[in-house]
């Protein structure tokens, strides 16, 4: 009989950690600006809605990532 290992931040798949981070960021934001281009000089956690691609994006410190 295998024992169930409870999920922790270290044993969750990378996509789950990224999704949880993005959700937490979005929930803490007052505004989610709709822009046609990415903001200049973003900071980690900064997000916006790309009107050209109709996707929400978040800056992870090195690249913009689509949320959906």
Characterization of this structure:
- By secondary structure, the chain is of the alpha+beta class.
- It has one domain.
- It has one helix and four strands.
- The longest helix has 15 residues.
- The relative contact order is 0.17.
- The mean pLDDT is 81.
Query: What's the arrangement of strands in the largest beta sheet?
Result: 1-2-3-4
What percent of residues are in strands? 15-25%
Q: How would you sum up the major sheet? A: 4 strands, mixed
Class from secondary-structure proportions = alpha+beta
Series of secondary-structure elements, N-terminal to C-terminal: HEEEE
| DSSP strand count | 4
The outline comes out as elongated
Write down the domain tally.
1
Brief summary of the model shown:
With 68 residues, the protein is of the alpha+beta class.
Strands, helices and their partners?
Elements: H1 14-28, E1 34-35, E2 47-50, E3 55-59, E4 64-66
Question: Key features?
Answer:
68 residues, 4 strands, alpha+beta, 1 helix, four-stranded mixed sheet
């Amino acid at each position: 009989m295998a024992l169930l290992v409870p999920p922790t931040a270290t044993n969750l798949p990378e996509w789950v950690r990224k999704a949880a981070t993005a959700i937490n960021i979005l929930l803490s934001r007052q505004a989610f600006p709709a822009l046609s281009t990415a903001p200049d000089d973003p900071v980690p956690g900064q997000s916006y809605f790309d009107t050209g691609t109709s996707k929400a994006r978040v800056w992870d410190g090195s690249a913009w990532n689509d949320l959906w």
